[in-house]
Design brief:
Layout lengths: L2 H4 L4 E8 L2 E7 L5 H13 L16 E2 L2 H13 L4 E8 L4 E6 L3 E6 H11 L7 H12 L17 E8 L2 E6 L5 H5 L11 E9 L4 E11 L5 E7 L2 H19 L3 H10 L10
Parallel strand pairs: 1-4
Antiparallel strand pairs: 1-2, 2-3, 4-5, 5-6, 7-8, 8-9, 9-10, 10-11
Helix pairs in contact: 2-4, 4-5
């Protein structure tokens, strides 16, 4: 059964990393955040599963590829109703991540999720909606910055857009824990390093590029360059933030702004807002 066959049925998509191994799978009819958090607590607190694998709790889990996982993540962000939840549980890093249709990824430490879900579900007479609301209130302020799980709050831009090589270049402000996100060591007083982060919008393809370009400037004058690949949820929230920023700065959509630049004669100038 392929992804298209599953489209008529609600499902949940998982990536689980445990003891150096990674599994991708789906479940039917699919769990939401409250359900998966309860399953995490059950697994971590029950001696019955202490020597097993988290995936063993899902008797009817169906393996999928990493590409199918990305497709389901995109459907979740589009809020089609076909995907109840997308989760990434990393037991090696002890992180619990879930995709939110508005903000993209949210990551918490498992040590925070486990007691919070227990407290949130203790009033058994409460509805699932009330329990979820209580869980999110308990976890408010405990969010982590995590590699592979950038959220909408990680994408804010400076007040200028550059045009370079057929792309609109956005400067992403490094006002979050970039060390946790990109493996650098700049959030410290021990050196004078800093990180430049660039996001690009491809004018010809009329969509954001699927990578961030990173430039590490070291205190000794040397520099390093590399790319950070964006997954489906990260790409979607980046596209939304780019669109909102362009509307704010130019009073038009990214599509219209890019087309206007294409129609201008001569070499593309640097545009400063």
């Amino acid at each position: 059964m392929g992804i298209q066959d599953d489209a008529a049925v609600t499902c949940a998509a998982y990536r689980v990393t445990e003891n150096g191994q990674t599994w991708y799978f789906t479940t039917l009819p699919g769990e939401e955040l409250l359900d998966t958090a309860q399953m995490l607590r059950r697994y971590c607190t029950s001696t019955e599963h202490s020597t097993g694998k988290f995936i063993s709790l899902y008797l009817h889990a169906r393996p999928i590829t990493s590409e199918e996982y990305q497709q389901l993540m995109q459907l979740r962000m589009e809020n089609t109703g076909e995907v109840a939840g997308v989760f990434d549980l990393d037991f090696d890093k002890r992180e619990f991540s879930a995709v939110h249709i508005m903000n993209g990824w949210t990551t918490w430490a498992m040590r925070d999720v486990i007691p919070s879900i227990h407290q949130a579900t203790r009033p058994r007479f409460a509805t699932a909606e009330e329990q979820l609301r209580k869980l999110l209130n308990l976890l408010d302020g405990m969010e982590l910055t995590s590699a592979g799980h950038l959220t909408a709050q990680n994408f804010s831009f400076s007040d200028e857009i550059l045009i370079e090589n057929g792309k609109l270049n956005f400067y992403v402000q490094a006002d979050f824990d970039v060390d946790a996100a990109f493996g650098t060591f700049v959030c410290t007083d021990e050196n004078d390093d800093w990180l430049n982060i660039y996001a690009n919008y491809d004018i010809v393809r009329d969509r954001p590029c699927d990578t961030l370009e990173l430039n590490l400037c070291k205190g000794d004058g040397t520099e390093e360059y590399w790319s950070y690949h964006l997954n489906a949820a990260e790409q979607e929230v980046l596209a939304r933030k780019m669109e909102a920023f362009c509307q704010q700065q130019n009073g038009m959509s990214l599509h219209d702004f890019a087309r206007q630049l294409q129609e201008e004669p001569g070499p593309s100038p640097q545009i400063q807002m």
